[in-house]
Design a protein that fits this description.
single chain; seven-stranded antiparallel β-sheet; alpha+beta
Amino acid sequence: MSSQLEEHDIPGATVAVVDGDSEVTRGYGFSDIESETPVRADETLFRIGSLSKLFTWTAVMQGVERGRFDLDTDVTQYLDEIDVPATYEQPITLEHLGTHTAGFEDRVHGTFVVDETDLQPLEQSLAEERPARVRPPGQFTAYSNYGAALAGHIAATTAGTSFRNYVDEEIFEPLSMDRSTFAQPVPDVLRADLATGYTAADGGFEDRPFEFVGMAPTGAMSATATDMARFVRAHLQGGTVDTERILESETVAEMHRRRFANDERVNGMAFGFYEMSRYGVRVIGHAGDTPSFHSLLFLLPEHDVGVFVSYNSPGGIDAREEFIDEFVDRYFPTEEPPGAVPDSTPTRGSDLEGTYRALRMPHTTSEKFIGFSETVSVSIDDRGRLVTTHAGETKRWVEADPLFFREIDGPDHLAFRETDGDVTHLFLGSRPPSAYERLSIAEQPRIHGAIVALSVLVFVTAVVGWSVAAVWRRYRGVSRPKADSPLRYARWAGGIAAACFLLFTVGFAGALVMRPTAFLYGDRFLFRILTIPSLVGAVASCVTAVFAGVAVRNRAWGRWKRIYYAFVALAAIAFTVLLWYWNLLWYQM
């Protein structure tokens, strides 16, 4: 652990390991650098992000046990003020929510909020931030914060209380988790022991403010490692800790069993948990993230072992993956031999190559751009091995069966789905809550990136070149086209389109770089303002295209001026189509 902190620029970490009746909890590094406060496993609270959902799903299964609802009934039967549209014939059930197969699009706004004053009652947030249903339930996994929040709301309201009170009374109190809370900010009695979140900056660390989660059941919890060890123990010991029971053993088994998989050959979904199995060892668990804290909880049910680890800086993303790999490899080694490196390309290798994008993304809102980089690129290297690149990480694979691959020098698995003879989807064993859909050539990120780069170059030359030319004409006294010529306004139309698109591009990029939290999670005024020039630019683009057609038909200007103006019109139209594709022509939410 100490070497992890140094290698990944992490100030502090907290760990709990449960092995049968034994338990070890440790703190490492600092919870606060300025005061040099050490992390203490039994005192220091870490923000655990989406590990909070495991408490939500536990609450749901308690409701099932007590007969307040069941997993296979339309969730609208349990909702009064929240509308779930009947977009598809098949209704959404709690089973779909618990396996992330409800078919909701993703939403960013509302997941986190800027400060405490932006927090709303859970029911209000669920009503105002409802995502669209973009596919029938039960088809694919697409991780959904909204789905988990909806389930937490149902668990609480059917019990006649709030979500926070429900978890306090039905989970925290029975398990004696006295130093855990869903309150935001944490209560005064615990505030001094809350770890500070950090980001690495200029050879040191920059502290981050408390991160407010908009829908508490999805990720608002703060806890100590010692408290998390009690929750882990409850799930390893059939729902009991000491003399207290939170779930029946049969219910725990139902939560832990595989309930859905995009492909049976790769890791799938339990209820709330997802499989992290490797080298034949079954592992279930969940990761948790806030911008500053990164956590992991995993269980090996057949071995009666469970682990919780949390880090207080972004370096924890890589550190936790190393942790589980090394933990399983050291304590549960297997004899499974590594796959042989192929000497030729995989079966149907050329059919597999391409770019696949995560289904977990906004589809109908102006947040769609969030999905731009959520892709997996597939290619074949010169040794005939399948190669994938995702989030900057490259893996190589060997074919084990048709459309199924094992990672070379790693535990991961990869499967492809074929539909009507075409390869359409990709599934990673390391990411069970995500499915990836193959993109057409026109949807490729590199194509869109090239269009943006070339268009911006054309727009800059148009704005600068035409402005300089206008000043020069005025200085030289050169006359403009006749007043009755429609081309009198051609450069104005093209210039307005170019200027508007440049204004949008600079403003949009600047907002993401300078004020990402406020832009994504805060007030949407800036987002709305930025889409005004994009819409004006789109209208001007259409006019520019008409003028370009007139100029070509009438052989107006010189040949090179006509060609250049046609390039401006083409760039403007291409940029307009791109903005339309990403829902950025006008503000949509």
